[in-house]
Amino acid sequence: MHELPLVFFTVLTQSAVGAYLLLLLWQSRQPVGTDRCASIKLLGVVALFALGGVMGSVHLGQPLRALNMLAGVGRSPMSNEIVLSGMFIACAGLGALLRWRQAAPGLSRGLLGVAVPVGLLFVWTVPQIYQLDTVPHWASGHVTLMHLLTVFTGGGALASLLGVTWARWVMGLGIVAALTSKLGYAAFIASSGGAALAAVTGLWQLQTALLALALLLAARHEPKWLPALVAVAVIAAELLGRIAFYDLWQIGM
């Protein structure tokens, strides 16, 4: 599948932004002296975002082509996506590194704070790339909602894995919203013909099963490795859903 790098790019980066936001909120309520441990977790999330960015660059064939795409900053969603992803890595990564080293606390707080709107703007920008009239199954608000909800589902699962216990509730709300909105998206796709819906139904069924499993497991507190299994199930489900999304491009064309 030619779009597989984009599948990992969108899911990993959006999940990482969600986990970053939840970790930052959790960290703000922790007692003094836990900064170093929390900062390592933030660095791990930023590394995951960077990994997603590297995987996404593979789709360009020659990753250096990303430099040529910077010419469209401000008018091209794809150019904006590249700039915002770089800004997020720089601000969040440097801010977390400074906090881990307990250096320049004012600058660290500022960088970590700036990374919040940058990350959210990045998440919003990504689905705007796919609002194409030439691909009828993409030109819908359902696509934007699908990408935004990954912040809650994937981000909540990762944050829970990293010790933010209440993040599983965020993940749960995201899963319920994602499954509910899928009904509307299915109806939208079916309105333009049943072939497209039939082609992605199998992947959507697997995705639904994994998300339902994650909900059931998240309701339990033991054993301690359960959050890891939940995170794997949620990320796998998001990847399946994103594969189905990109398959709609071929069907639509």
Automatic annotation (TrEMBL):
GO terms for biological process: anaerobic electron transport chain. Signal peptide: none annotated. One of its GO terms (cellular component) is dimethyl sulfoxide reductase complex. The chain crosses the membrane at residues 6-26, 38-58, 78-98, 110-130, 142-162, 169-190, 196-218, 225-245. InterPro entries: DmsC (IPR007059). Keywords: Membrane, Transmembrane, Transmembrane helix. GO terms for molecular function: dimethyl sulfoxide reductase activity. This is Dimethyl sulfoxide reductase.
